[in-house]
Recover the amino acids of this structure.
């Protein structure tokens, strides 16, 4: 009886350890569901982000991202297909911008809504669009224009109107290249 009890206890402990290891692996996998930005330039950059969640449009900033590093901008599974980025090069000037106009300001901010930015005391800033293809996680790569590889022209597409802010032009510049 004692030997049988020991074998059962050993199996139970082994199963418990295996289950714990499996749960740890799954939780580590879920932790990878983030929206990240990598600064592949030789400069420090400031980044702001726009997105639409269940409560409407939000813009947030600023994340200061050192040269040749990555930063997690949003943790967890993505809540939208389209995200919008505006970034500035602190060291050499220039910006990464687009035609999706949203509200921002020079100091740290979280702003709800994209309408009447100037009347509400904010700046009206052009963000570039990032189409995540409804992936659970995404990483944007910022590069210097000289480092950027040539890309094929993208066909125009018409996403659902509910996904875009009201002041978005029909096309946005390619992701990641500095002007």
């Amino acid at each position: 009886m004692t030997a049988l009890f020991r074998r059962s206890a050993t199996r139970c402990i082994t199963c418990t350890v295996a289950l714990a290891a499996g749960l740890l692996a799954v939780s580590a996998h879920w932790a990878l569901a983030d929206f990240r930005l990598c600064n592949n330039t030789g400069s420090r950059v400031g980044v702001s982000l726009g997105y639409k969640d269940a409560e409407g449009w939000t813009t947030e900033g600023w994340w200061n991202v050192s040269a040749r590093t990555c930063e997690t901008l949003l943790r967890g599974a993505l809540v939208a297909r389209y995200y919008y980025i505006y970034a500035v090069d602190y060291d050499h000037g220039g910006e990464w911008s687009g035609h999706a106009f949203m509200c921002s300001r020079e100091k740290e901010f979280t702003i709800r809504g994209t309408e009447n930015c100037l009347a509400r005391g904010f700046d009206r800033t052009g963000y570039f669009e990032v189409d995540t293809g409804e992936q659970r996680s995404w990483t944007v790569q910022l590069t210097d224009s000289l480092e950027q590889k040539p890309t094929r022209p993208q066909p125009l597409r018409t996403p659902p109107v509910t996904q875009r802010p009201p002041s978005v032009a029909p096309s946005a510049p390619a992701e990641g290249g500095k002007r």
